[in-house]
Amino acid sequence: MKNEKGMVRGWHILLLAGISGLLFLFYQGLWGNPSYIPPVLVGTPAPRFEAPDLYKGVPVTLDQFKGKVVVLNFWASWCQECKLEHESLLALNRQYGQNPGFVMLGVNYQDKESLAKEYLNTFGNNFQHIIDLNGRISIDYGVYGVPETFVIDQSGVIRHKEIGPIIGETYDRFTHRILEPLLINQPVSP
Amino acid sequence: MIIELGHLAVITALVLAMIGIVVPVIGIKKQKAVWIEIGRQAVTLNFFLLTLGMAAMIYAYVTQDYSVKYVAATSNSKLPIFYKIAGLWGGHEGSLLLWAWILSAYCALAVWIHWKTQPVVIPYLIAMESLILSGFLLLILFLSNPFERLLSAPPDGRDLNPLLQDPAMVGHPPMLYMGYVGLSIPFCFAMAALFSGRLGEEWIKVTQRWTLLAWISLTTGILMGGYWAYYELGWGGYWGWDPVENAAFMPWLVATAFLHSVMVQETRKMFKVWNLFLIILAFSLSLIGTFLVRSGVLSSVHSFATDPGRGLFILSFLAFMLILSFGTLIFRSNKLKSNIEMDSMVSRESVFLFNNLFFLVAMITVFIGTLYPLLTEALKFKKVSVGPPYYNAVFMPIALGLIFLMGVGPYIPWRKASFESLKKQFLFPLIFAGAGMILFAIVGIRDLYALSGLTVVSFVLASIVLDFKRISSFLAKQRKITALQGFYTSFRQNPRRVAGIITHIGVLIMVVGIIFSTIYQTEKVVILKPGEEVVLKSYRIKLIRLYEVEGPNWQAQEGSFQVYQGDALITRLYPQKRLYPVSQTPTTETALHQIYMGHLFLTIPEVAPDGSWARVRALFNPLILWVWYGGGVMVFGGLLNIFRPKRKEVYAAHSTEASLPEGVPGIPQLSSKRMTQE
Q1: Does B525 contact A35 at a Cβ distance shorter than 8 Å?
Q2: Any idea what DSSP says for residue B409?
Q3: What residues contact residue B661 under an 8 Å CB cut-off, 6+ apart?
Q4: Distances, alpha carbon A104 to alpha carbons A51, A97, A130, A176, B592, in Å
């Protein structure tokens, strides 16, 4: 009997705490800018994943690229902005692809396999792609939308995140200030 | 002049609403009916005053009075009259006025209906409803006043957001608000029950139809919103887990849980505190939804102006309401204890318990997903949002569980189910579902979600059919009538149950629609020049030419397409890329062709300025119409439930039990026979 009363009180406290927490959260939220997105996960170890290759279907893991700088690009065939940056991505891999310490990996997000392949056939392709089957990788990396590009360093730490297409000035900044210093093991200055 | 009159009417309404909070309380304290009568008059008068306020605004729209700031912001002289009126809820200020008006209408109606029969509850109801109304009127008059004038009137308005110029969008907000606000009536009854200490089953019985009305409105509102997104936004889907969609979905989930759990209280006197909690939660979620939408704390496709002052006010009001309602629940519910323990885990009670648990977990999933950006920000995590993959991964299994329970709950006996009765009821559906699964797999449905979804749907369907057949033939034999008449008799005898099952059938139809239209959707995006074609499934879609057209308040580039199946021309489609020059907003107008109950969906998101090529997006959405057909059946079931005929005989679940099909009135000899067996 006593125990039951204690449980009820416990529920009451939990409920009140929940409400207070919620209100505090809303209050905090009022002062934030909803469209501001700080650099996600930068400086933390990159979430590990295992996903099938778009063409061969064999599993690809992040671990197999340890010791290399990985550029992880989330894209989809239905995404207009991805088309904008596609040429730049191909150029990026042409520029650094020969470097043994560099690897580029596309992550196909919320898409259909056939459409993804068709997209690559139409717009060209020179690097490896994996399929984010149930969206797990996107959840782990906190992907808002596509395109988003992550740069992971040799020890598996995320060093940079780019939201939106990598074109024009962004491309230059991306290559000169982020990729190149990383490739020669220097600190990154975004 | 008219607009000032409307303004004055709303100011008066605020004063009256404040009076309406106080006088019923005095009436209860002093035990004098006259005070409560004043409250009633205030409520009735408020409805007329707010109607006047609404009418004044509509008058300003129709007469194109652009000296009113809000009208100038949401209307234009070229706008068709239909959309001129809808412009009233095309923005923040007008939406709130509509909210308040619907609230006053509900309140007046509730007081009018229940004045004689619920004398104890009415004063509390008036006080609570007036409190909510005051909060909204304060917000309207001081922080978002639609009656505000501009010092110098512009010659013409800035136009209603073109995306909102759609028939579904005219009906969507009022329906949604009717749902949100409708929940306030059962909420106020629950609060009245807590305050007055009359915590029996009465409030639940009285508010049943109110809750149903709110649920139907919410359902319709969400369905219309989905159709609008599908047709007007042109991305080919109808649900994107956007914060604002979620804001409407969360109260719906809890209201649905509530509609189910009240049945346990009615028949078994259990879940008393739980039901109070659920309805308070459901209405709180409507308020939270309003806060999320109106304060701009979350980014979403429904962009409304951000104003911390406004947000702060709504937040304070929200905090007040949450603390008041949940606080009262905590302090007043101590008296309540369900006297009856659960007899067995294999019983209808426990299925209802799981139903509630699942709905609540579903709600929490959506809640966390929606608030995740806020949460990470407040805890100084890095800001991470959760997109559709999160919802698909977490929500789908819960939805599957809920659908499965739909096939168990209505058919498992109360209290304790014997193995025999379980076998009798569920063996056939299980075999049927198993056979269905094998069949689906053979036909080529290999997707895990599709296969398990369809299997569960067949299980539920078999349960429903078996049950209907059993009751009908039982009654047919008993009364010597045909099975069809027997079915009708079963409806006459337990209309609530049959109406509920019709709603369940609607859910099944919708689920099949969702499965096929999402998992088996085919899509192609290509650039076409006139004369070229794209092949989608067995259809060839050929672009004939591109040209310019003009509407009352827009210009567009239109594509003329011919759709062939084999060599036969089956239809012509004319999607558009529109530009609304006043607001400089482009939109894509979808062209649809119905194939069986699916859609061929065509948009041209990008057209070359000289009309030499167009980017064409072609989709085939199989069975997509089932989503809305199913929704229609759900709403029909709900309406049938509201307007159901009175039951012929009162029949309590305690007296007759498992061996009798549900919906059959207790026959004395039969039940007494069972008694002796026990």
Answers
A1: no
A2: G
A3: B467, B470, B471, B474
A4: 15, 8, 11, 17, 40
Residue A41 falls within a domain, yes or no?
Answer: no
Looking at the complex, report in whole angstroms how far the Cα of residue B374 sits from the nearest Cα belonging to chain A: 6
DSSP letter for each residue of B593-637: EEETTEEEEEEEEEE-TTSS-EEEEEEEETTTHHHHHHHHHHHHH
A chain contacts of residue B295, beta-carbon cutoff 8 Å: 26, 30
Confidence of residue B300 (pLDDT cuts 50, 70, 90): very low
Nearest CB neighbour to A30, from listed B308, B382, B390: B308
State the nearest Cα–Cα gap between A99 and chain B, in angstroms.
32
Give B319's contacts in chain A (Cβ within 8 Å): 23
Domain count for chain A: 2
Cα separation, B460 vs B405, in Å, equals 8
Q: If you ran DSSP here, which 8-state letter would residue B301 be given?
A: S
Is residue A67, in this structure, part of any structural domain at all?
yes
Min mean pLDDT across B27-31, B42-46, B80-84, B371-375 is at: B371-375
Residues A143 and A58 in one domain: yes
- A139 with B330: Cβ contact below 8 A: no
Report chain B residues whose CB lies below 8 A from the CB of A35. 299
pLDDT per position as a tens digit, B388-443: 778 878 888 899 999 999 988 888 888 777 788 888 888 889 999 999 999 999 98
pLDDT at B302 over 50: no
Mutate to test the interface with B, among A22, A37, A49 (most CBs of B within 10 A): A22
Residues A85 and A170 in one domain: yes
CATH number of the domain at A167, please.
Answer: 3.40.30.10
The stretch B503-531 carries a mean pLDDT of 90
Confidence label for B337 from pLDDT (cuts 50, 70 and 90) = low
Give yes or no: residues A157 and A84 share one domain.
yes
Is residue B523 within 8 Å of residue B507, measured between CB atoms? no
Locus of tokens 């079931």: B637
Q: Identify whether A190 is part of a domain.
A: no
Distances (CA, A) of A80 to A92, A156, A164, B137, B300: 19, 30, 11, 44, 19
Provide, as residue numbers in chain A, all residues whose Cβ is less than 8 Å from the Cβ of B299. Answer: 34-35
pLDDT digits (tens, 9 = 90+) for B149-203: 888 788 888 888 777 888 878 888 899 999 999 999 999 999 998 888 887 888 8
Task: Kindly tell me if the per-residue pLDDT of A22 is higher than 70.
Answer: yes
Question: Which element (helix H / strand E) includes B331?
Answer: helix B308-332
Q: Residue B665 corresponds to which amino acid?
A: P
CB-based contact B297 A34, cutoff 8 Å: yes
Check B297 against A26: CB less than 8 A apart.
yes
Residues A69 and A96 in one domain: yes
The DSSP code for B233 is I
Residue A129 lies inside a defined structural domain of this protein: yes
Is pLDDT at B666 greater than 50 in this prediction?
A: no
Contact check, Cβ <8 Å, B374/A19: no
Summary mean pLDDT of chain B = 85
Structure tokens at B471: 């009751």
In the predicted model, is pLDDT for residue B650 greater than 60?
no
* Residue A6 belongs to domain spanning: 1-36
Identify whether the C-beta of residue A149 lies closer than 8 Å to the C-beta of residue A42.
Answer: no
Is the domain of A8 the same as that of A57? no
pLDDT in the model for residue B283: 95
